[in-house]
Every structure is written in structure tokens, then in C-alpha cells.
């Protein structure tokens, strides 16, 4: 029986407590045999990678006397994350060296700008021979980037190890477009007649930088004004679009000869994009408003066509479902002309029109009416399509889940004062997307 007094527990109670304590110790020790007892360790989740998953790079020009710029857009965040200054009148760009470096051909100051697209890193300027007027950049190699020197009938080879010019490869015409085989063995160059040269297509050996014999065109599709070059993903075929003759020709890279039947795409066609997912070529013809889809699985280049008025450039979606065609319509009389731009969404299965996405109507500022007027590219994850709108001074972002305009990202401000606070934006001339 438990009792309590004002001075504490009774002697009997204390004895009972001692006995209970000894019994508890014995029970605890008895339970500590060689038995497995699981131990719970906290699982720390892997933190998210802060790096951008996918990027788009927009190259902008700023007139004939001022440096241009490059803006990198984070696809997932729909925002500009870095900007870099490039040379005067940038014409074309390449995301090279495994996607970690951008090379920009600057036509007016005979230079190439190199920088990292994802951080605000310093820009390296690579000087080219005077009068080079670089117009195109291409490479599938890690060690070398090639630049088409349209002004001096040559191709410059730049070492990516130290960003210096290592070779000047002389050609028989003015190079305007290039494509290298995926394995990096040969570089194919489309040339127009200039400075005493002739229109032609040639290949360059990447190992020793020697030029192979000119590729003889088909009798039905002569080289008159080659405008674009693309490589098939297996490297066995190179495709050349000739604006003057209006044909796309297939070249066997093993023999450097034309194979199959060239595909007629109409005189004036000047832009071509290759879709490695569906093994197709897409060609736009602004002169006729015809968009062609060519089956590259055989050398006869079977074609489907559809009409998109004033089609300028085209970008297939990597998931293979749709292809996006940028177009622009000019109205009015100079100097008060306006241009209305938009994107037509086509089904890849039959080139039927799914929808159209109006972009903007603005005063005409860029007068080329070629692919640089509305450069277009699709994000690697197929979630966005980016359109560099030269006239509007902005990049339009299309959301592909509903094919609608998501937002417009202004280009960097230009250097045209006065006053500096109201300087107009620069003009986008080329868009490329990264992995």
C-alpha cells in the first residue's frame, strides 16, 4: 500500500521504487542481444540544377556603324538571361564546341565574335583578312569552326582551342552557305559568282583543308545561285538549294556526285531546314509563296507542297508534329511602308494548315525580305518557337502547347541617340537554339 507523508515517500515505497528500477534495467539489458535493428537515415533529395535546360540565342544588328548584340533566352523561364556585344552587321551565328560557345560572323568589320551563351562572359574578337565580309559560320567539329568569307572568295578555319585563324582556304567563287558532315570529314560550300568566280559547290577536306574538285551539277538543275546547304543526319547525303535554278539537289558524300532526281521548288526559293526526326527537308519560296516538304529517305526527293503567302523561313518542331513558317507582307509606299508578320503552323503529315499566329504590324525597317527578316527556330524540347522580328526589334515567343503568341522579348537598345533613353531597339537578324 502506497502512503504519502508531508516529508516524502515512506520506506516501503522507496524500496518498491528501487525494486522497479532494478527490474527495468534487467529487462533493457536482456533486450540488447545480437538482433538487427533497422536504422533510419534521412534521404536528401538531389537539388535542382540551376543551369538552363534549353536556350535560344538571338543575334541583333545595330546599323552599319555600330556593334550588334547577342541575347540568350532561357526557354523554361521565358526571359533574357545574358547579353553580349558582337561586331558590326552580324550576319550568321553558330552554337559550337558542344553547345558551349557561340561564333558570330560580323560582315561589316571582318571579324568573328566568340562568347559563352549562358553567362555574361567576355567576348573574344577574331580578326579576318580585310574585305572578308563573313556571311556564314558552320562546323560539326570540336576543334575547328569555318567562316565563309564572301568578300574574298575563301573560307577561314578558326581553331577553337585558342580562337585564332589557322587556315585560309581559297575558292573559285563567293561562299554564301556551308554545311559539314556530322562526322566532320568534309565541309560543303555553296558559292555564287562574284569577284571573277563562278557559281559552284565544292567540298573541303577537314583534315588537311584541301579543296576537292567542284561538284558537277545536274543538267536539269545547274548551279546558278546556290543559297543553302544541309546535311542528312547519317552524313551520306548533302543537299543544295539553288535559288536561281529553283532546284534542290542531293550529293553523295562518298563520291561528291549528284544522285537521284533534283526536286523543283521554284525559282526564288532561298531557305532550307532539315528535320532529322522525320528525315525531311523544308524549303520556303518567298517569290511564289510555296512551302515544300521533301522526303530525304530516297534520292528522288519526293515532295509535298502547300501555299503560305510571302513565306520567308521555316522551322520543324523536334517532336515531329508540326512545322512553323514565318511570313511577312509589306504594304503602302515608301517611306511609309508597313509590314505585317505572322507564323503559319502546318501539320507535318500532309502540310495542312493547323492555325496562324499573328505577330505584329509595324513600320518597315529591314528591307531584305529574306530569312534574316524573320529568322525562326524551335526549342529543343519543342515547347517554344522563337521568331526574330527584324522590323519590330523584338523576338516573338510562340507557345506550342496551344500555338499562341506567349510574349515579345525586346532586343537590346540601339546606339542611335538622341536622346539615349529613347534609343530604338536593335534588329534581330538570326535566331538559333541550343540543346
SSE topology sketch:
Elements: E1 4-5, E2 8-9, H1 11-30, E3 55-62, E4 66-74, E5 79-88, E6 90-96, E7 101-106, E8 111-115, E9 124-127, E10 134-138, E11 144-149, E12 154-159, E13 164-170, E14 174-180, E15 186-192, E16 200-205, E17 226-231, E18 237-242, E19 247-252, E20 257-264, E21 271-275, E22 280-285, E23 290-295, E24 303-307, E25 311-316, E26 322-331, E27 338-347, E28 353-363, E29 374-378, E30 384-389, E31 394-399, E32 404-410, E33 427-433
Antiparallel strand pairs: 1-2, 3-4, 3-33, 4-5, 6-7, 7-8, 8-9, 10-11, 11-12, 12-13, 14-15, 15-16, 17-18, 18-19, 19-20, 21-22, 22-23, 23-24, 25-26, 26-27, 27-28, 29-30, 30-31, 31-32
Helical element count?
1
**Proportion in β-strands:** over 45%
Radius of gyration: 31 Å
Strand order of the largest sheet: 5-4-3-33
Low-confidence runs? 1-11, 25-52
The quaternary organization reads as single chain
Report on the biggest sheet: 4 strands, antiparallel
- Measured between the Cα atoms of the first and last residue, the distance is 82 Å
Mean pLDDT: 88
Total DSSP E strands: 33
The assigned structural class equals mainly beta
Q: What is the 3D shape? A: globular
- Helix residue percentage: under 10%
Keywords for this structure?
single chain; 435 residues; mainly beta; four-stranded antiparallel beta sheet
Description:
This protein is mainly beta and 435 residues long. Helices cover 5% and strands 49% of the residues. A hairpin with a 7-residue loop joins strand 23 and strand 24 (303-307).
